[in-house]
Amino acid sequence: MNNSLKSSVPTDREVILGILNNSEDTLNKLYKGYFAMVLQFILNNNGDEDDAKDVYQEAIIILYNKIKEGNFELSSKLKTYIYSVCRRIWLKKLTQNSRKAGNITDYEDVLAVEEDVEHHEEKDLQFVKMQHALEHLGEPCKTIIQDFYIHNLSMQDICEKFGYTNTDNAKTQKYKCLQRLKKIFFQP
């Protein structure tokens, strides 16, 4: 069957498999598939299109991370899960901004997804904290850590880049840098 003839919204199973297989096409279809539902919800509850885009983006990231972590069990339709996450995020934003959050107008079933949203927010905070720690690490440590963990350079590459005599020296330096990074990261 020709893919272009398929419906624009992938099945729940296709979404999960697509995300597991890093399919950009699946993510694009997912973005388009349920946005109208979320937009409608946010417009009816003191928000605008930009709010809807932000909330939807965040919900897709939560879904993506949950599937990638391998502990995602779909106990409902994916549409319901996405709607519930968006609803939870929006309620929180309304409360934080002291906008009217009392009478939320709902059209969909809602799941309890507080834990998923909180887990995502906690990871976000940790990421910001790690970026902050990296900024305060100084050179050459900052670049060594980024080269190894983010840019996936080998110890041999790092050794050559920084002019270490051998990879053992580079490993020792990386270890010292990690210790310093941990110290900065876990500072109260």
UniProtKB/TrEMBL annotation:
Tagged with keyword Repeat: no
InterPro entries, A to Z: RNA_pol_sigma-70-like (IPR039425), RNA_pol_sigma-70_dom (IPR014284), RNA_pol_sigma70_r2 (IPR007627), RNA_pol_sigma_r2 (IPR013325), RNA_pol_sigma_r3/r4-like (IPR013324), WH-like_DNA-bd_sf (IPR036388)
Domain RNA polymerase sigma-70 region, chain residue ranges per copy: 30-99
Gene3D superfamilies assigned to the protein according to its UniProt record, in alphabetical order: 1.10.1740.10, Winged helix-like DNA-binding domain superfamily/Winged helix DNA-binding domain (1.10.10.10)
Record's keyword terms, sorted: DNA-binding, Sigma factor, Transcription, Transcription regulation
Name of a matching Pfam family: Sigma70_r2
Keyword DNA-binding set for record: yes
Domain of life, source organism: Bacteria
PANTHER family linked: RNA POLYMERASE ECF-TYPE SIGMA FACTO, RNA POLYMERASE SIGMA FACTOR HI_1459-RELATED
Family from the record: Belongs to the sigma-70 factor family. ECF subfamily.
Annotated protein name in UniProt: Sigma-70 family RNA polymerase sigma factor
Species lineage: Bacteria, Pseudomonadati, Bacteroidota, Sphingobacteriia, Sphingobacteriales
